[in-house]
Amino acid sequence: MALEFSWQLPLCGPAAAPGGVTGPGHWIQLAQAVEYAGLDGLWIPGGAQCLDSLGIAAALCAHTRHVRLTVSIPPQVMLPAALASTVQSLQSISANRVRLHLPDSEQNSLRQAFGDWLNRDQRNERIGEYLEILGRLLRGSDPGFTYNGRYFQLENAGFAWRDLPAPPIVLDDSQSPALIASHAQACLLRPAPPAWLRQAIARQRDASPEPALAPTFACTLGLILADTEAQAWEAAARQLPAPPADGADSVTRLQRDGHPLRRFEVHPNLLQQAPDQPLYLVGTAQQLATRLQELHGVGIEHIVIQGQPTVSEVLRFGEQVLPLLTRKESV
Q1: Would you place residue 257 in the very low, low, confident or very high pLDDT band (cuts 50, 70, 90)?
Q2: DSSP assignment of 60-96, as one string?
Q3: Rounded to two decimals, what is the model's pTM?
Q4: Would you tell me which CATH number, out of the four given (1.10.260.40, 3.40.50.10420, 3.20.20.30, 2.40.50.140), belongs to the domain 4-222+296-311?
């Protein structure tokens, strides 16, 4: 399977707020650039600090034709039956291009922001019920079913069901392996060096009752591309926030000479300033293609690019990096 790429839209934080540097026109331009450049999809983030991912996905359906739309929406935002109905509508108007990411609210305090004060055990039980209901409604195997759980009770649910393919479900790796194995078609791994990713993939595959049904694996990467390696590290220093003060952490780092920022290199061309912080791919087009191919070999099948939110960066990646990967795959 070829490595898949999605470009993340800038919908969260100050840039997405009223008066920020982005807006509907910019999102449409980015989406069309992603399609023109030959990338596979768009990642549409959602959360307490983000704009409405479902509404933006619906708007972008009218301006794209081929790219997949991965829509991230916290389970606290909508009841499962309401989400199933909305996602079915998105499937219909997008010609079945939707993929649904349900982020783990435990990782970023989304639960408090949306008024969820259950304890951890209760949240695990609740998300299990949520995914069971959502899966049954999206598959449409028994429209009109009744469900009596601890957290959800439904009667005659699924009355608006239509004969459409169920979108794949993406869950974070912080959810239990059993939950991922039972309900997810893809697993989003936290940013980490390749050795950690390999181990995480092996653990999740071991948790799958049937290896052939194990989920695929995705990870997020920041992208800093330049004509030379030195220019790429200088660009990283300009674009990234100031690194933390020196201190002990659990990340094994390379001992590299050159730019001061390289003391945070955890793998050749991979920069991570602190554990659980974003992972950045820094270098030339050839270096980026080599590292992406290495990640593919580890077991990553989908890269979510958190690059600069500009059309020029999207086109540059499509023109300079994708052809190198295509050439490697054909050898």
Answers
A1: low
A2: HHTT-SS-EEEEE--TTTS-HHHHHHHHHHHHHHHTS
A3: 0.89
A4: 3.20.20.30
